[in-house]
Amino acid sequence: MQALLSFENAPPFAAPLRFFLTAPLFATLAGLLVAWEGPGLFTSRWMPGALAATHLITVGFMLQVMLGALIQILPVVAGVNLQRPLLVAQIVHAGLTAGALLLAIGFLVGAPWLLSSAALVLGVAVATFLACTARALHGIPSTSPTIRGLKLALVGLTSVVGLGVLMALALARGWALPLAALVDLHAGWGLGGWAGVLLAAMAYVVVPMFQLTPGYPTRPSWSFPVTMLGLLLLWSVAVLADQGWLVRLSQGLAAIVGIAFCGLTLRLQSKRRRARADATYRYWQLGLTASIVALLMLLVASIWPAASEIDGWTLGFGILIATGGFLPLITGMLYKIVAFLSWLHLQNFGQAKIPAPAMNKILPDIDTQRQMLVYSLALALLLAAVVFPDWLARPAGIAFAIANAWLWWNVASATRRYRQSQAEMAQKLAERLALAAMPK
Q1: Domains of the chain: which residue ranges?
Q2: Which of 142-151, 251-260, 307-316, 424-433 has the largest mean confidence?
């Protein structure tokens, strides 16, 4: 079941594009930081370098791409009227960029004022985005699983940012809070309630549309976002009540729900009508498979808590779920979105008089396939570095930086081809107008 798409409501291409061009640079910085810190970063997830690299990826890359995609997809899928989308994009993008840098530097140098500043800047940026989208969504009925999923994802975004601001201020000001439990809950809301629900809501549209699969079944499509948020609320209550068994129960059930969604998407992909596997398809296969493995680890730890004490278990889970699961899913979607939006805007620019170049001409699949091979190598090195940090930490960081710099290059090249094509089409249109104006 899919939402009806209204491409005439699409915002200017410059609104989401600024997010898409910035995000890979943060992932590149994360890779360089891993290479700089070396084996020490793999000692514990609480190391300053590990915290900085994690937030460069989650805030600098994931949040950038997802908010940029939402600015694009909300008017198209939900038919909402985002007022002055380009101005909103400029404000939010500037806040996310500055906030992510302040947060990473704050973790690295241990400066409380930097953490407080990052919390303020990120809080204002996300609050601005939420206020604009809430105003636009007011009165819009949830006529499809995608629209309701997008609305519920915004609830998840509110929760994860609220927890993040609270913890940043607690670290900066020395507040006595159960930070270990809150960090896990923060990650749960970020990966499950925000990124997971948003990706599922978008998957209902983009997987059948771009990968030519059957549509998602109606009942799971409606129930997945509600179930996931319900379990995260249960987890939050368990943390407040200090009930460890209830925390583990909610974690285990959330893992099962996530595995079910990933398995369903893999089953739909096996029925796709396209014979050739492009980079988007392969990225999604990688992301879904890694997510299932990571969620199985979470399920095991919820049943057998001692598993989380095994050397490298928690760090390996984090690498699998973030860089193995969510980043490939987001990157695969990013490639399709950039190519499709370039084609769509060129098609509109041509006014049905000048044909737009094909999507594969704007972003050749051979470029994306090669970048994915490097990314897969980087992921393998990161996972192996959990076991052999002395040998592989720095090579893994360098490979991760190269893979994401290549991603930036591919997106930037697509943008350059888009602008070149627009200039060529403008010249052809002008020539046609000049010929039409000549006396016969």
Answers
A1: 7-422
A2: 251-260
Distance CA 52, CA 30 (A): 8
- For residue 355, the tally of other CB atoms under 10 A from its CB is 10
User: Does pLDDT of 280 surpass 70?
Assistant: yes
Secondary structure (DSSP) of 61-74: IIIHHHHHHHHHHI
**What span, in angstroms and rounded, lies between the C-alpha atoms of 28 and 93?**
18
Task: Say if residues 324 and 288 touch (Cβ distance below 8 Å).
Answer: no
pLDDT digits (tens, 9 = 90+) for 371-401: 999 999 999 999 999 999 999 999 999 999 9
Which residues 6+ apart lie within 8 Å of 436 measured at CB?
none
Which CATH superfamily includes the segment(s) 7-422?
A: Cytochrome c oxidase-like, subunit I domain (1.20.210.10)
Distance, CA of 322 to CA of 299 (rounded, Å): 17
**pTM score, two decimals?**
0.94
Q: What amino acid is encoded at 331 in this protein?
A: T
Contact predicate 399/378, CB 8 Å: yes
